[in-house]
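Trying the structure run again after the queue cleared.
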Amino acid sequence: MKTKKVLLILLTLALIFTLVGCKSEDVKDINLSINKIGQGEVVTEGDIDKDNGVVTLKAIPAKGWEFKEWTGNLEGTENPVQVVVADNMDIAAVFTKTGEESTIKYEAELGILNGTEVSSDNYGYSGDGYVTSLDNEGDAVTVKVNIEDEGMYDIIMGYNGPNGEKTNNLLINGVTKGEVKTPKTTGFTEILAGKVWLDAGENSIGIGKSWGWIDIDYFKVKKEESSRNELNPTKELVNPNASNDTKALMSFLVDTYGQKIIAGAQNSESATWLNENIGKEPAVLSLDLMDYSPSRVEFGASTNDVEEAIDWFQKGGIVSLCWHWNAPKDLINEEPDKLWWSGFYTKATTFDVEYAMNHPESEDYQLIIRDLDAIAKQLKRLQDAGAPVLWRPLHEAEGGWFWWGAKGPEPLKKLWKLMYDRFTNYHDLNNLIWVWTADDGQESPEWYPGDQYVDIIGADIYLDSHNYSPSTAKFYNLVDMYPGKLVAMTEDGTIPDPELLQKEAARWSWFSSWSVDLLLRDNTLEHIEKVYNDDYVITLDELKNMENYPF
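Done. Tokens:
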């Protein structure tokens, strides 16, 4: 069907093409909306081809500004540029300040929408609206940006969060690079979504649904200005009586920090598999004191993890220990998912940590002391063997899925400090390096026990299978939140790519892969081989002799 196009030019620079069909009296309007980011104007140049819907646009920057790119339904840097209008189009001309770095703002409603939609129901947004309806798996909004110089960039997001704190995925060039935790708001505001690496040229930035339920207003991109090399964690341990072996291990970790990453695995089965199939072993072996919990022993649980830890130390390895602490009492012990062996989960116990910590005269508190003493006895065995321990108790508390975090930050912090005091001052355990497993949300610092009780910050990171991102945004969020503390990836599913770790300067101290099943599900064999044979990765055979390591 042939059509005739009639173009109307409005002062708002909305161009309307009117299509009239030869065999119909119907009229169809096609809108070309032109917006500006920064200071400048957009004009039409030359004659307008009304029959074919062709117009030439020219971006004219204001004084002190320069044209950077077109975005929206037109991409590129050509200026002037010829546009063929075949359907409704939204175009924005991006202007930046001349001779200086500038924060560039990209309106979300002009981006690429997958399952989402533009709305203007709420007030306070910028531009012509905002993007909402991140309701289903795969829903996302992305914008295209052109970057002149590769490097680290701050991604700032304008949003409205009327439905409470939510977590969603930060998408960079189609790959999840981290999570964005957005606190509840009463209107539109902005938040640092993350620090990410952007290549020179075209990149895409967006938000994909995890929890959803937020409104996305815009994205800002700003060159990250701080030096990626200025990491100065302290070697001084919080326990002034720490043993020389423990001081030597901490000194080694700090000396290695930013130079290489130390390979770790979560259990002996993983270490054995790696040795048999890759020909390399992790330097850090992470084990669990779970089955030493008295309420598990009462049901017949047994373990030899302490013996395995001592063997690993005597083999020249680094020992890390966590404790999936079965609640001291009040196990529900019911099918299907609340049986006694799930007693460290909030759902599987009615034990109230807040009540216990507020009532030191209670049976509940005394049972906490009983459990702490039982675990101290096992840690003492390691101390007697000369083995320092990366001690990682009460992990992932902020999630609330473990009973020790179920009642919020205050009882958790009391419990951590009680454990520190009981172990350090009562049991004289001087072989522990205290590792706090942290998150990087806006409220995460409220959970932190304090610098005087924590040596190292850890993060447990599980990305989609075969996503080998170094989680740079989370790393630097934690570095900024806890200055002076070394930061490690204390659990992982996918192992970060050593090339990307170096490229993006994500200087995690070590990683620790969780179980053989998860290792093989989330990583290809080729990737595992690549990691364990990379010069940037320290394996067991490359560990220095800690016995005489200076501190």
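The domain at 244-543 is CATH 3.20.20.80 (TIM Barrel). Worth checking whether this holds up in the mutant runs.
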